[in-house]
Sequence to fold (296 residues):
Amino acid sequence: MNKTRGLIYAILAGFIYGFTPILGKLSYMEGSNTLSLTFYRSLLSIPFIFGILKYKKIPLAITKQEIKKLAILSSLGPSLTAITLYGAYNYISVGMTTTIHYIYPVLVAAVSVIIFKEKISKEKILALVLSTIGVALFFEGSFSIVGVILALLSGVIYGAHLLYIDKSGLNAMYPFKISLFLSAFASIYMFIFGMISKTLVFNMSIKGWIYTLLVSIFVSVLANTLITMAVKNVGPTVTAIVGMFEPITSILLGIILLNEPFTLKNIFACILILTGVLIITLIKEEKVKIKTVLSK
Fold:
């Protein structure tokens, strides 16, 4: 396990997850919808991931047990989380959706301690509290109960996704190999559901396809792979806490690209989140230094 790399992977994934919702909303304006974006996000990523695996000469063979685990994992992260999260964007703002979605770090920490009997340090608890308060400060304005429920479900399901990566043993598999099968299963799930519900869109503007392709590359190829690598190196709890870097990205890009206001409350919220992430980072580095000294 490499703690520093794991933290970097988690921060990068949070950054990517933070700006892709804007691309998602732009694709909706060009003829797409929630289910179509989720379907194409997975489908269009397959050639890119396959090319990476071929270049790296990674064998694609997997066991029957791994197929079952990957099928379950795909139903959580790339499928149900994406549907509920993108669905929430249709009812409430990106900022509010992100805020509610971030119940998952608390859930991951709680489940890890209560069910899996893992120890959680005082530093992690402090980082979790500060970051959670920071995210909560972004919550404001009117809202739709449907949007709130969808955003809440997205957080619960994504928390289960992180825990399953760690506890199923899949984190030992090559990261891009996991991403390939997750995208393949998610494409099948979304196609079937889309055809049954008749909500799958086949006609979009050129801009719509470009936005969708960008979301596919950034999320399915990069961010989903980075999350797997982060969980492998620092575990689901730390990955969840550091992932709170995402709302800062959403807020800053909203200001830059959408001319959204930046209030003192938002500044304070960003400071709290960054403080929480910094605590996790410094504690991990300190522990690595101590182990290095003791080993000499």
Observations:
- DSSP finds twelve helices and no strands in the chain.
- Residues 284-296 have pLDDT under 50 and may be disordered.
- The CA atoms of residues 238 and 280 lie 7 Å apart.
- The radius of gyration is 19 Å.
